[in-house]
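Severity: low
Component: inverse-folding endpoint
Summary: output formatting inconsistent between runs
Steps to reproduce: submit the following structure tokens with default settings.
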């Protein structure tokens, strides 16, 4: 969202030009069964102009109605198919609504192996991930559970759905927790990179990846950190990995 309306093809193109390793996006399902890339349940926050559909939940709108809303700079809500066609980097696809889980698996099953191989599927909702996993076409980089509160009962869910990644806010992470998850063979991501202190947290916590809404600034911070470059000597590469 730094250089273009968020969750649009222009914003994804901008991120690739900056040189990000991975793009995070959100998927929801329209009333007529289209997988669209949209963070909120409605278009009220992201619309650039007036529309009768701004406060209507996306699941109650058709694709045509969703696409009628102007997001600014000539952008409209893209479908996931269009996004896959328009991008080349790794994708983190977050399921925002349970109804989108199985259609997502079906869509990926019909995509080339190369597209599945660059997707990891995430959600805050373990049930959405379980629904996706039930129809998982295989070939993706796995599934990841967002854990906003590490004190909650999430470990059983990680095991049940076979998650490969756990995503936790910086403020809720400790080195002991990261070490525990690494011992269990899990990848750990912390977010968001918003300033120099966050780069230090990546190193101190021994994280596998992080994210930012301001990728150009985040990459400048990473390039300027001797600690980070010592920890990740091959960066920038295809992804921030252990």
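Observed output (run 2 of 3):
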């Amino acid at each position: 969202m730094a250089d273009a309306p968020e969750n649009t093809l222009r914003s994804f193109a901008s991120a690739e030009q900056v040189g990000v390793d991975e793009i995070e996006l959100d998927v929801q399902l329209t009333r007529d069964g289209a997988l669209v890339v949209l963070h909120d349940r409605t278009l009220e926050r992201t619309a650039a102009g007036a529309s009768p559909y701004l406060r209507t939940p996306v699941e109650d709108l058709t694709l045509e109605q969703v696409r009628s809303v102007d997001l600014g700079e000539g952008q409209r809500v893209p479908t996931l198919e269009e996004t896959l066609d328009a991008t080349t980097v790794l994708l983190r696809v977050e399921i925002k609504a349970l109804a989108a889980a199985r259609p997502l698996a079906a869509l990926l099953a019909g995509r080339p192996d190369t597209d599945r191989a660059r997707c990891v599927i995430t959600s805050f909702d373990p049930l959405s991930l379980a629904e996706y996993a039930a129809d998982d076409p295989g070939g993706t980089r796995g599934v990841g559970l967002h854990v906003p509160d590490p004190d909650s009962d999430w470990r059983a869910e990680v095991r049940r759905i076979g998650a490969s990644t756990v995503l936790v806010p910086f403020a809720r992470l400790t080195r002991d927790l990261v070490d525990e998850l690494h011992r269990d063979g899990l990848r750990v991501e912390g977010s968001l990179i918003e300033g120099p202190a966050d780069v230090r947290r990546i190193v101190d916590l021994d994280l596998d990846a992080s994210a930012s809404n301001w990728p150009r600034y985040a990459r400048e911070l990473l390039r300027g950190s001797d600690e980070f470059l010592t920890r990740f000597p091959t960066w920038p590469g295809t992804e921030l990995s252990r």
